[in-house]
Give the backbone structure.
Amino acid sequence: MKAVIKGAGYILVHTPDMVLHNGTTQTTERIVNPESEYLKELPKHLRSFDEVCAYYPNQVYIGNKTPDDLAALEADKVRGWVDIKCDVTDRYGKFGQIMPQEEFLLLMQACDVFQLVMLDKDFVAEFKPQFAANPLISEDIVAKIPEAQTEAAEIARLVEEEHSEGLYHNGKLVGCVKRAHDIDVNLSSHVMHEDIVSKASSVLSILAAIKSTGVAKDDVEYVIDCCEEACGDMNQRGGGNFAKAAAEIAGLNNATGSDTRGFCAGPSHAIVEAAALVASGTYNTVMVTAGGCTAKLGMNAKNHVEKDLPALEDCLGGFAVVLTADNGVDPYINLQMVGRHTVGTGAAPQNVIGSLVAAPLAKNGLKITDIDKFSPEMQNPDITKPAGAGDVPLANYKMIAALAVKNGELQRADIATFPAKHGLTGWAPTQGHIPSGVPYIGFAREDILAGKIKNAMIIGKGSLFLGRMTNLFDGVSFVIEGNDGKTQEAGGVSEEEVKGLIAKAMKEFAATLMAQAE
Amino acid sequence: MSILAGKKVVIIGDRDGIPGEAIKLCAESAGAEVVFSSTECFV
């Protein structure tokens, strides 16, 4: 059976105060150089919610603009798309939404089932109506916000005396996340803050995907979370499970789930696993989801401030993809064409791209140029170029094109045009797993259904070495293809074979009747 | 003669570019002494 892509949800959460208080570039600077000019300058470089909504790549992320629209823009050599105001500034898009910080703090409290998120009663009174008016926030979620909230003085005491992590809005302390254990560092307020943020942004992603696909909540049988956080306690630090925790709040009552990890390659692993679960008939509908990461907020902000740019990493990202059993229409994941960087692949670029791109295609008799669009790491170059990391998607396309030349599938002169023809311009926030191939899935489904492209390869890569368990990195790729309405033959009987068997039986039956008549 | 022959080399590779391990092999084949090599993630 084929596993088809029913659709996807994409969300951003504008969290300027978390850039200052929770991004690791800033928390590290505060420890090693607390009086630095950078820390003094950074607040001046934070964008307003309106500016975030008017930023073109953000409108692409939530689906109001397309990657083609973005590629057609003329970016400034130094400032990229920063000074271009998008003609669409709506916070809501067909794939999801951009949520402002004040609503997200309330969503965090709705997602906290251990009374750890405390909010200032005046803050709640001011913003609860706005939160309840959000079309993705249903009454049952609003009902999770407790009536009794906390006095500002008590929140200040919890931060100053009880090791709580502050929650800020427009520079003012408006809440906190309490520690969940007195001794266990795995349940510290810092970790609980990070985990509840991830959970809440995953919940929002799930709700966005439910809305954009029209799938009934009760039809979702399994959820795979593929963020990069770990939840657990001192006896099982990464015990899990974000997936089921988010499914509970989102109201996916018929679902269980589990967490899949692989740094930024996590989403690609998770989608291959989800597709296999559907294709095998184990589950009919599986959702892959991931929330955002507070640590990476403002990760490259030192370079942005130095170059007098806005601190562009001011949004958490989230996504959710829905896979269902074949409906004969939606594009499907070809599980016979999965690429993987193995232990023995090695680190040479030609080996890496060979294992992820050329090998799975060659196995199926295809060339690199047979793939219409590649979606590798889709980081927004506005963020990475000022930091010296270059245009990451473009670097990937150059390596794919170089391998195609080496394999005799592309003329050397065509390397220059390969990125525009087979590639995309990056639009995703540098939230680790979020830009890793998956931002294109929603558009890929639409582009294939519209006949603009026939297929797309999603490539996820992960820096496993950051966990200090191995020096290896990782990568997984898969191909999305148009659905011809025919049954996939792998592991079963094809439609043609069934027709043949019926025809043969009818023929034999007719022959028997004719013999009897004679 | 290689410009790296007999030289001490520090390598910072890029996961999305050329990983440290690949640069190390090239540098060693050119006669360099690699004193440090790592691959970093810049995204």
